[in-house]
Amino acid sequence: MTEALIHTTADNTGDTAAAPGAQQPVDLQPSDVEAAVHSIADRSRRAARRMAMANRAWKDRALHAVGAALKANTQAILEANAKDVAAGKANGTSAALLDRLTLTGARIDGLVAALENLANLPDPVGNVVRGQTLPNGLRLRQVNVPMGVVAAIYEARPNVTVDIAGLALKSGNAVILRGGSAAEATNSVLVRVLREALESVGLPADAVQTVDQYGRAGANVLMRARGRVDVLIPRGGRDLIQTVVTNSAVPVIETGEGNVHIFIDESADEEMAVEILLNAKTQRPSVCNTVETLLVHSGSTVLPAVAAALGKAGVRLHVDERIRAVLPAAVDSVPATDEDWATEYMDLDLAVGMVDSMEEAISHIRRWTTGHTEAILTNNLSNAERFIAEVDSAAVIVNASTRFTDGGELGLGAEVGISTQKLHARGPMGLTELTTTKWIVQGEGQTRG
């Protein structure tokens, strides 16, 4: 993936005047790509200034218009997506990535519902974070304001195109998208639909733009467009994310891979453990909040039932020697290696290990976690509180599925991504996380002594 991003020539490049998402000639020079992407960023900057002035009612009209346009263009979107999926299958794309790439009528309905939810949420812009009047009479307010120009680099996730655009619009930002070649046909239609919907309500179409037409070279220029782009958010596999973090001159909010853990302690209820593990592993295995490692306390009695249910659901267990020794004979498994503890499978595979204590479970998590989500299943309040206190991940869950680490599920309407870093944003990033703050100081002639 590193080579794919930092390759110095464009793979789908072309005339700077071409429409967003249009196929480009292959002979565009690197300097022309730079000029074209800078032009896009400059138009985004102008659009961002207009978006920052839009009130909530205006932005909500835009979200409703986008939702209606998605519904009206469902057939065109699905036809474009079918081309991307067929190309992905021909290229040997993994089942997990194909699942993320695929749109259905139901998934488009879900995107529309998320936009409606965003429209119902309060506008974060202008929210007063804190304020006070100083002894000298100065009146202070710290308020949320839009970031400005938000860029996103992601792969094989056309739903992200709509999610990020919707969040950016509601938070008063402009967005530049690089959705990758795997979803190029789908994203081209989606960006067109988004831009037309914005124009229909009098907002600038340039609040949503793409650099997909400039391929790898366009992504590289976007990463170096410091001063033109305010923040860059990568979403995808580890290679893509680390490439962006390493090579970007634009400030990056790092979204991490999800090597997610569930720890079953000796007090956990069997029925609850079975239900949660099945949901956390099998509901949608290709997403980042799916459990990838199960740790079971040696004093627990739930393993046979959990393993049998997972095996029946088609989950392949990668187990350590102690787990293998107590597995029911009917449950198939393979030996686990250190690579398994570090792997985000994004498939129907699960690493399973046995531990003798809470300390051992937490130590294992600290060694192998990516800082995304960890959960404990327990009926012991002390164990739950200790796990919460000592596990340092973006989300820590007690007695529930890890699949709840999601902006929509947590009431954020949607999410730009799940940040695993600690500066500015952590966990699912919704509307507020796409704002920064500024100080407003109002006086009556005061001077500093």
Overall pLDDT metric: 92
Radius of gyration: 24 Å
Give the termini separation: 57 Å
Morphology:
globular
Biggest β-sheet: strands ordered side by side in the sheet: 10-9-11-8-7-12-13
Strand content: 15-25%
Name the assembly state: single chain
Uncertain spans, ≥5 residues at pLDDT below 50? Answer: 6-26
| Structural class determined from secondary elements | alpha/beta
Q: Find the count of extended strands (DSSP E, 2+ residues).
A: 16
Q: Can you characterise this structure?
A:
Strands 10-9-11-8-7-12-13 form a 7-stranded parallel β-sheet, sandwiched between helices. A 4-stranded parallel β-sheet has the order 5-4-3-6, sandwiched between helices. It has 449 residues and is α/β, with parallel strands linked by helices. The chain is globular, with a radius of gyration of 24 Å. It has 16 helices and 16 strands.
